[in-house]
Specification:
alpha/beta; Nucleotidyltransferase, domain 5; 5-stranded mixed beta sheet; 8 helices; globular
Amino acid sequence: MRAVLEIGGTHVTAALVDPLRTRVRRRVRRPLDARGSAEHVLGTVVRCAGDLDVPGGQVWGVAVPGPFDHEKGIARFEGVGKFDDLYGVDVRSVLLDGVWPRPADAVFLNDAHAFLLGEWRAGAAAGHRRCAGVTLGSGVGSAFLVDGVVCREGPGVPPEGRVDLLRWSGAPLEHTVSRRAILARYGERDLDVRDIAGRARRGELRAAQVLDEALAALGTVLAPCVRDFGASAVVVGGAVAASWDVVGPGLRTGFGDTPVRPRPGTLGADAALIGAAEYAGAAGR
């Protein structure tokens, strides 16, 4: 069994993953306030990991969003509206000192990388040597894999492997494709994207138009990357992808005649946990 953590903007999950059957065997989930103090955030993470009750000496895999120095385990969140109080904190040391029984080590990877790695290991990208993935939530996360190894450069791979660094209509992509951008375009307060998706599903033309325009922009930007990278699978995850029936058509429109068609992930919340376990296993070998 491999112990993993997934740290998100609203929750933290600790889990035990069976690497042979690629199944999550046990999990503990706690709510998390990403705008809270470092003491609150890290205390919640440490307690969640401790509640999993695993033997000591494990290499924990930790999926966490950026900006983050994943190699060193140091938080670099600044001006992104979440985890700002963690800036400069050595999260790896906090986990090694705070989790009991003590881990042997903790290795970190980007949450979008963990998602695609999980889908490659046991989900929608299984059997594909070259695959790409995007996660749609508060922003756009991305990953490019070759035989299960993350690529940050090369043909088709955007700078640092990050689609969010690309531009659309002269502005950063996330000015069009993000939770904040979609809500602003829709123009009604006190909603979430899932609410707009629900209205589109019920036939509201305005809601459908807003989603189609945002997702078509993402598809148009992503399609050349996919073609040049040579991906044979493109997998989509994240909160927005949960409404695939209404977001999928716009994304496919943006892909145009690209032979590879985007598809939703099949593992749901387990994808990042399985991906983190795969990464921890590789690190421990």
